[in-house]
Amino acid sequence: MTDTPPVPTRTLAVDAHNLVKTFGTNRAVDGIDLAVAEGEIFGLLGPNGAGKTTVLQMLATLLQIDSGDARIFGHDVRRQPHAVRQLIGVTGQYASVDELLTGRENLRLFGWLQGLSSKEARRIGDDLLARFDLTEAADRYVMHYSGGMRRRLDLAASLMTRPRLIFLDEPTTGLDPRTRGQMWETIRALVADGCTILLTTQYLDEADQLADRIAVIDRGRKVAEGTSDELKAQIGGSRLRVQLANGGDVQAAAAVAGEVAHHVPILTPTGTEFSVSLSDANQAADVLIALRQRSIDIVNAAIEQPTLDEVFMALTGHLGATPTLEPEVSAA
Question: Is residue 72 a contact partner of residue 242, using CB atoms and an 8 Å limit?
Answer without folding.
Answer: no
